[in-house]
Amino acid sequence: MPTVLALETSCDESAAAVLRQEGDQLTVLSHGIASQVEEHAQWGGVVPEIASRRHVEALPNLVEHALKDAGLVAADLDAIAATVAPGLVGALMVGSITARTLAALHQKPFLAVHHLEAHLASVFLSDHPPHAPYLVLLVSGGHTELIRVDEVGEMERLGRSHDDAAGEAFDKVARLMGLDYPGGPAIQAIAVEGDAKRFRLPKGRVSKPGGGFYPYDFSFSGLKTAVLRHVEALRREPEELPLADLAASFEQIVADVLVERSLRCCSELGLEHLVMVGGVAANHRLRSQMRAAGKTKGVSVHIAPLAYCTDNAAMVAVAALRRLSSGVEPSSLELGVAARWPLEQALSLYGPSPPF
Ligand code: KG4
Ligand code: ZN
Fold it and tell me: Does 176 map to a domain?
């Protein structure tokens, strides 16, 4: 019955959670998030220096409450985990140093977690976890990727964005429409009332050097520019900007592209299970469209629970518990943090020789 305390501080959410695993059963004993988005919203995006300082202020309280709400003390834990890469270096440092200090103090193993592995693990908190092999659509603020996961957990990246990530596109489009950061929830909120068919927007494909297109890759920068052109043209008109219609049309085209390419990849590779995780997977239109299309195509769709799509510590704990049960050696207390680190090399975060 391993029990893990996990911390997440890779961007603008400070979070702590305690999870227990009994066989295949995962129980969230506690989880808390201190969001900084309101403070960053004034600047139109995340300010790394502010993020680090807010993590320093928020973590002690979050850790205390995570243990108290779980009804445990540090001595009851089997390991202490934290996200160490990728992300904002100063922000990652706060969570990692806190976890390593607690691990040293209470003589517990330290488990370093890759942020994208944590997003992938978030689907195991759903009532309907997938069976390998499956395809993962990872859609966050920094990544848009299609990853095949096989029976032994080996991963192969089959598609990616060549420019903006889907979440980044939501954030940038929201900003040019004069909406708040983060853009995803802001666009979703006003899109509810909008006509998604009002504006024709491009699907953004990536050309192959010899002709044709990469079938599973994405490009969102042309879409962002197309929205900008509409906004500029509409601002010349006397009427108010039809923001709801523009937001709905944008949200619709992003959902169309993500759904079409993911299901095409499943069908061409003969994969029967599709997993969707990451902040953008919280989008209602995308969730319902992916489920409906999966049904039509005979693909079983598994989406992370809404509460665990955007950054949180419960998903970090799931990744740590899965590593623990796979028998990895604990991470070195000498391990640092990294702004970038390939998901395929997440295993190198464990054992006595730290890669950074
Ligand atoms: O996974 P996440 O919390 O952080 C990263 O690891 O990047 O994702 C944050 C991204 C932001 O770009 C945000 O605008 C987007 O997820 N997002 C959404 C929604 N909620 C968050 N995008 C679309 N619809 C939403 N409801
Ligand atoms: Zn994330």
Answer: yes
Q: Verify that 204 and 293 share a domain, yes or no.
A: yes
CB within 8 A of 22, min separation 6: which ones? 1
Count of beta carbons in the 10 Å neighbourhood of residue 194 = 21
- Tell me how many domains the chain contains: 2
Model pLDDT for residues 81-133, shown as the tens digit of each residue: 999 999 999 999 999 999 999 999 999 999 999 999 999 999 999 999 999 99
Among all ligands shown, which has an atom nearest to the Cα of 250?
1
- Give distance in angstroms: CA of 197 to centre of ligand 2: 30
Give the count of beta carbons closer than 10 Å to the beta carbon of residue 150: 11
> In the structure encoding, which two tokens stand for residue 219, read together?
């490009």
- Domain limits for position 25: 3-121+311-349
* 282-312 per-position pLDDT tens digit: 999 999 999 999 999 999 999 999 999 999 9
The residue whose CB lies within 8 Å of the most ligand 1 atoms, and thus the one to mutate among 310, 311, 316, is: 310
**117 and 132 belong to one structural domain:** no
Contact (Cβ atoms closer than 8 angstroms) between residue 285 and residue 106: no
Which residue in 233, 146, 161, 151 sits closest to 203, CA to CA?
Answer: 161
Query: What whole-number distance in Å separates Cα of residue 258 and Cα of residue 250?
Result: 12
317 and 229 within one domain: no
In this model, does residue 6 exceed pLDDT 90?
Answer: yes
Beta bridge partners of 300: 273
**Mean pLDDT over residues 156-176, rounded?**
97
CA 76 – ligand 2 centroid, Å: 28
324-329: long-range contacts, CB 8 A cutoff, minimum separation 24: 324/2, 324/4, 324/78, 324/79, 324/111, 325/2, 325/21, 326/153, 328/111
Q: What gap in Å lies between CA 67 and CA 260, rounded to an integer?
A: 43
